[in-house]
């Protein structure tokens, strides 16, 4: 038994076609019947009229009425049709088939004929019970010589033919309906089957099996639906992967400093080291602790940004100052790889309205990335310039670069091209959001093997903002 959409489609098609066919069929049958009946009528009518016109007064010569009438009968008679001559009362005066006198005809064709037009009546013959057509015409030769010629013809043959047509066209209707039925089942199946497959697949996905894919190449909306679902599953798999990667890299990130802290702690505890060595051990413990604090802070920042709870203390910030400070901070790290940092800026300050610490965090990450992913003995170019009412910072390295497929994802949270370099993969995700909170943009361009360029654009401080922010640093 069919259910749902399938049934709906089949039923609707069926009813629609059935109604259309019934309409056409009835119009056709009515037209057929009218055509047959009219042609019989026209044949009789034209014949009798011609005869009456042609033989006009020559009939009157006969003084004897009965021979006059038999003359009339002779000239007017038609094959397959019985002819009656009536007087004005409708009484039968002569009859082509037998001698049945004194019958009075009362059908509507007679008064119609007396009025002057040709009368027509269709009905059942009283005697035989056959369905007949009567056509009556007035014959008026003046001086009370008024008669009616009444033809009666059986309609049985015509009706039989019409029934035949009805049966045949009925068969055609049934045939068409069967065809429509099969076609609409096929159509319904082509819709329902993929929907069932998609439903089954999405039920699997709902259970957490994201390796399931909807197979088959469907068209139109259904195709779109299935590819959207497949895409969704892929995205879920991918983000799960990113999450798993993150957990493993964060555990690793946490374990390394902890191991080192623990190791030095135990070493120092056992005692017997000279003050120099002790100092070095403590320094390492402190450095590793800072690294842990930094890591945890990054995670906290990230979750604050996620929940829109990042508080910013905005004031006038000199972008140039921020960058110079960062260059001092990363100098040691750059030195290790013999990387030189070069700052190009025309103006003194490049003022913007923002949170100095947060901006420092952004550029620290961008420049740290540049150092981290650069080769030994290279340059990193940092440029500040003004573009319309924006301050633009460009950090350009000639490092390992990022391939196109990774480039579109590096700003995703926890995303790292490889996990060898440490870190959490949160740096750019946080930077991007912080820059957006400042009303700016962060763009990355890169070519694998050739280096990366990060462009940060921030709205420059206007004169009025400059004035206001000096008085009251706003908290956003
Ligand atoms: P974190 O910043 O948390 O220490 P991270 O530096 O790995 O970790 P992001 O700053 O978000 O995280 O960078 C994400 C990834 O983008 C990096 O792991 C690296 O693969 C790629 N990437 C970022 N900047 C560069 C760059 N200048 N050159 C090459 N690859 C880069
Ligand atoms: Mg980073």
From TrEMBL:
Q: Which CDD domains match?
A: HAMP, HATPase, HisKA
The lineage's top-level taxon is Bacteria
The chain positions of domain Histidine kinase read: 249-462
Compartments where located: Cell membrane
Q: Which GO terms describe its molecular function?
A: kinase activity
Which reaction equations make up its catalytic activity? ATP + protein L-histidine = ADP + protein N-phospho-L-histidine
- Give the EC number(s) under which this enzyme is classified: 2.7.13.3
Keywords from UniProt, A to Z, are: ATP-binding, Cell membrane, Kinase, Membrane, Nucleotide-binding, Phosphoprotein, Transferase, Transmembrane, Transmembrane helix, Two-component regulatory system
Keyword Lipid biosynthesis attributed: no
Where along the sequence do coiled-coil regions lie? none
Transmembrane stretches, by residue range? 12-32, 165-188
EC category:
transferase
Q: List the membrane topology term(s).
A: Multi-pass membrane protein
- List, for all copies, the residue spans of the domain called HAMP: 189-241
PANTHER family given in the database record: HYBRID SIGNAL TRANSDUCTION HISTIDINE KINASE C (PTHR43547:SF2), TWO-COMPONENT HISTIDINE KINASE (PTHR43547)
This one is known as histidine kinase
């Amino acid at each position: 038994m069919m259910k749902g959409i399938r049934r709906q489609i089949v039923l609707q098609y069926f009813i629609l076609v059935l109604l259309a066919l019934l309409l056409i069929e009835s119009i056709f049958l009515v037209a057929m019947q009218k055509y047959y009946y009219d042609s019989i009528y026209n044949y009789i009518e034209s014949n009798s009229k011609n005869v009456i016109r042609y033989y006009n007064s020559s009939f009157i010569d006969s003084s004897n009425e009965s021979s006059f009438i038999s003359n009339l009968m002779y000239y007017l008679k038609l094959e397959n049709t019985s002819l009656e001559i009536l007087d004005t009362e409708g009484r039968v005066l002569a009859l082509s088939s037998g001698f049945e006198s004194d019958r009075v005809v009362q059908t509507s064709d007679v008064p119609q004929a007396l009025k002057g037009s040709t009368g027509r009546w269709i009905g059942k013959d009283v005697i035989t019970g056959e369905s007949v057509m009567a056509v009556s015409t007035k014959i008026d030769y003046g001086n009370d010589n008024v008669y009616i010629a009444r033809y009666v013809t059986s309609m049985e043959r015509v009706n039989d033919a019409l029934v035949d047509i009805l049966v045949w066209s009925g068969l055609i209707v049934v045939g068409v309906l069967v065809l429509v039925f099969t076609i609409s089942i096929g159509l319904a199946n082509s819709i329902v089957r993929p929907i069932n497959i998609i439903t089954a697949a999405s039920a699997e996905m709902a259970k957490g099996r994201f390796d399931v894919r909807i197979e088959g190449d469907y068209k139109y909306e259904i195709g779109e639906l299935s590819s959207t679902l497949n895409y969704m599953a892929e995205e879920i798999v991918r983000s799960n992967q990113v999450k798993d990667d993150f957990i493993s890299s964060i555990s690793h990130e946490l374990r390394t400093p902890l191991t080192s802290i623990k190791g030095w702690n135990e070493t120092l505890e056992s005692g017997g080291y000279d003050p120099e060595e002790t100092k070095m051990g403590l320094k390492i413990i402190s450095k590793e602790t800072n690294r842990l604090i930094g890591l945890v802070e990054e995670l906290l920042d990230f979750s604050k940004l996620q929940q829109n709870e990042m508080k910013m203390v905005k004031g006038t910030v000199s972008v140039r100052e921020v960058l110079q400070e960062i260059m001092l901070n990363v100098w040691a790290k750059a030195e290790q790889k013999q990387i030189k940092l070069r700052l190009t800026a025309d103006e003194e300050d490049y003022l913007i309205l923002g949170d100095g610490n947060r901006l420092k965090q952004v550029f620290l990450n961008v420049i740290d990335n540049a150092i981290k992913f650069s080769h030994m003995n290279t340059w990193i170019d940092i440029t500040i310039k003004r573009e319309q009412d924006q301050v633009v910072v460009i950090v350009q390295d000639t490092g390992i670069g990022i391939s196109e497929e990774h480039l579109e994802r590096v700003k995703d949270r926890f995303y790292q091209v490889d996990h060898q370099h440490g870190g959490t993969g949160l740096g750019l995700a946080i930077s991007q959001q912080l820059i957006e909170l400042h009303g700016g943009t962060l763009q990355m361009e890169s070519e694998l093997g050739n280096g990366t360029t990060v462009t940060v654009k921030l709205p420059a401080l206007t004169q009025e903002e400059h004035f206001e922010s000096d008085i009251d640093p706003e908290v956003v």
